[in-house]
Each structure stands twice: as C-alpha cells, then as structure tokens.
Design a protein that fits this description.
The complex is a heterodimer of chains A (about 190) and B (about 240). Chain A is about 15% helix and about 25% strand. Chain A has about 190 residues and is of the alpha+beta class. The radius of gyration of chain A is 19 Å and the shape is globular. In chain B, helix 5 packs across helix 6 and helix 6 packs across helix 7. The chains are: A alpha+beta (about 190), B mainly alpha (about 240).
Chain lengths: ~190, ~240
C-alpha cells in the first residue's frame, strides 16, 4: 500500500488557516525594531580580542536607538547559537537597565556588588552559560566561526526581576512585555 | 571573587612605604604585536612573592611557587572575614604533599602553572603575578570555566585540582603543613578535634561559644596511631586531610 506523499487539499486549508492565525498573533506582538550598534564592534565582523577570552575579556560598549517611547526597562542578552547544548550558549545576561540609557559602557564590572556605571545604575547581571553573573566573552573551540548576538529588549514595565536570572528565566519573565527588540551580530573564531 | 581586600590594602601600603621596585624587566612584545605593558612602571601589585624570604621548597620550583602563591591568595583571599590561604600556608602544604600523597599531581602543576602564566601574558599582557587583583580574578575565572587556552586538556581540570588542594591546605589538619596557626579552622569557626565532649562543652558548641582548642588531631594518642597506619598508604590525592 502506498500513501500519497504530497499535501492534500485538506492539509492545504489547515496550513493556510494556521498561517493566518500565526500572522495575526505575530502582528499583535511584533516589537518595534531597535537599532543596536557599538563603537568597537562591527556587524558580521570579528569581535576585537579584548572582548574575548583571548584578551582582557571585558564587556564591549553597546549603543542603541529607536527604543519605543513607552519603554520602562531594557535588557540585553549575548548568545551564541553556534554553541550550547541545546543552543544558544549564553555569554551575558543583564537587565533592569534604565530606559534612559542609550547603551552600555565598556567593561561592566564583574566583582559582586561593584557599583554599576551611573548611566546604567540599577542594572543587574544574570547568570550566563559559564554559571556566573558576569560577562564572559567568546571562547569557542577552534576551527569554526561563531556568531554572537547582542540582543536588546525594551520592556513596557519595570518588572520585579530578581537577581540571578538566566536567559531562559529572563525571557520567561519578560514574555508579553517586549515592545522593542534589536540585535547586533558579530563573529569570532579561534584558530 | 572579591574586591580590594584588607590584604591588598596592607600590601599596597607596604609597597608604597618601602618604595620597593617591583617591576621585573622583561623584553619583547606581546603576541598582539604591541609594546608590552610590562615595560610600564607598576605602582602596586596584589602579591609580591619574590620580595619575601622563603623557606626551602621541597618539590616546587621557586618560579612555580611564586605563581601558586599568587593563585591561592585569590582563591581564598584575606579579607574582612579573616586570614586566607596565604596565611594558612596552603602552598606549603601543597609543596610538601607533592612529594607524598599528591605526588601524582606533580606533573599537572608543572604544566598547569606554566600554562597559566602563558595565558595571563597572552591575554592580559603580563605574567599572572604582575596583574592587578581584578585581572588575576578574571584570568582565574577563564581558567575555571575552561575558556583559557594552552593547557594540557581543559583548564577547568587544573583549576579544580588547585582549588581542591588549596582547600586541603587551608582547612586540613595542620599536621600536614597547612592551616598554619589554625587560621582555616578559625575562619569556619571549627572548634577543633575532640575525643571527648562534656555536657557544658556541648552546650557551648550549640551556642557558638565553644572556644577552639587549636590542637591537631595528631596530638592525641589515638590519631598518632592512625598516622602510623596511614603512612603506608600515601598514594591517594584524596586521603589524609
């Protein structure tokens, strides 16, 4: 007995209905695009060594614009979809950034309790894939280019986000509150 | 990892007061092709192992001990909580034990400490001892998380080895050469080994008022006998702490 491998008219109808529902859902929740840049990082270009484990391993400066006017808080996640089990491998989680901030300065402190720079006072660093609440830059296995996504989220409320959240916990906590989102993608490869 | 510790402050004051030259002349450029920052004057450093008198080493070389001293000073630093691994002489314990119970780790120290110093220089532009406390912590985090390069196997394995031995040297029985003056036991409020506890002492223990006896377990006849038995089994890294 053989079974038809192509889609039936019934399947086609289902797909069309689902696509329409999905489009409506996405349309209702699609956040406004945020432009993410950096004075030292260039899109799709290698990350300078100082921001990696092959250098000083300090966090790079980021800037953002076109943040929605109603933003009450900003969060940033650095993730590498080319690593992790399951991907992405998370290098940095930082949230409760004041909406007035236009970016993150270089070298966010990693010592516990160290004060944040004034422009981002109140920001909290969450737990990365390195199991520490600090920035740790690219340190991929050699032989493959990895892509690093600096994702910026604008939130419509000052949420009660506890210290020590990892990426999954943060994304779960901000679900339904993201009114703006953007990212800068840079690369790194160890030879 | 910590902020500037009490020990750092005391050392910086001592360095400034004594005006001791601390920078070691090193030649060349770093591997990024830039002038090495090692040529710049160093105002203060968190650890000055070479500037102090040291007793003869049993197994480690002087260079290895310098690096290890600096490492353990960051793993269990001296701070507001009290003395740390340096005062406990954790490295003395490790140096001695590498000729006995920890002998199987000797080669790991040779390669690991050399790799640590190479990594510090290639990534931060200076030997580990010459870095600030913050940069030393940053290097150690990279080593701990396996992000550091140049190690035989994972740097995380070397970090775990050194951390384990530092714990042994800080909190083990002073009989083995560490936990000097019982600073490790005092740090965790351990009152000491007792073969008998009176009701009054038990009460004090529960009230956290029992004074430490500051005695090695081997000061009692019972453990002295155990020592003799254990001396014939000095092969495992995990025993005899």
């Amino acid at each position: 007995m053989s079974r038809r491998s192509g889609p039936t008219w019934r399947d086609g109808t289902k797909i069309a209905v689902c696509a329409a529902m999905l489009a409506a859902r996405i349309g209702a929740q699609t956040p406004q695009g945020i432009s993410v840049e950096s004075p030292t990082l260039k899109a799709d270009q290698p990350i300078p060594r100082d921001y990696t484990a092959d250098g000083r391993n300090v966090s790079p400066p980021l800037t953002w614009s076109r943040v929605p006017a109603g933003a009450k808080e900003i969060a940033v996640v650095l993730e590498d979809p080319d690593a992790g089990n399951p991907p992405p491998f998370v290098h940095w989680v930082i949230y409760k950034i004041p909406p007035t901030a236009k970016g993150l300065p270089e070298n966010i402190p990693f010592e516990p309790g160290a004060p944040m720079p004034a422009a981002v006072a109140g920001a909290i660093q969450g737990v990365s894939g390195f199991r520490r609440p600090i920035y740790r830059g690219p340190a991929p296995p050699p032989g493959k280019v990895h892509h690093y996504h600096f994702v910026v989220y604008a939130l419509d409320a000052a949420l009660d986000l506890k210290p020590g959240l990892n990426r999954a916990e943060l994304l779960d906590a901000i679900k339904g509150h993201v009114i703006g989102q953007g990212e800068l993608i840079a690369t790194y490869e160890r030879k | 990892m910590t902020f500037i510790s009490r020990r750092d402050l005391l050392k910086r004051a001592a360095v400034l007061g004594a005006a001791t030259p601390v920078a070691r002349p090193l030649e060349g450029r770093d591997d990024r092709g830039a002038e090495s920052p090692l040529h710049e004057p160093v105002v203060a450093r968190p650890f000055q192992g070479r500037d102090r008198v040291r007793e003869p080493l049993e197994n480690l070389t002087a260079g290895e001990m310098d690096i290890l001293d600096a490492v353990v000073a960051r793993l269990i630093p001296s701070d507001a909580n009290g003395p740390g691994a340096t005062e406990a002489r954790a490295t003395h314990y490790i140096d001695r034990a590498l000729g006995g119970a920890l002998a199987s780790s000797r080669s790991a120290y040779t390669s690991g400490l050399a790799a640590l110093d190479r990594y510090a220089r290639s990534s931060r532009g200076a030997l580990f001892m010459q870095l600030s406390a913050t940069d030393q912590d940053s290097v150690l985090i990279d080593v701990e998380t396996g992000a550091a390069t140049g190690f035989t196997g994972s740097s995380a394995a070397f970090f775990a080895l050194v951390l384990n031995h530092t714990h042994q040297g800080t909190f083990g029985d002073p009989y083995y050469g560490g936990n000097a003056n019982f600073v490790g036991w005092d740090l965790i409020s351990y009152p000491g080994v007792r073969t008998m506890v009176t009701a009054a002492e038990q009460q004090q223990l529960e009230n956290h008022t029992l004074k430490p006896n500051h005695k090695s377990a081997y000061e009692t006849d019972m453990f002295t006998k155990a020592t003799a038995q254990n001396m014939s089994h000095e092969s495992s890294d995990k025993e005899r702490v």
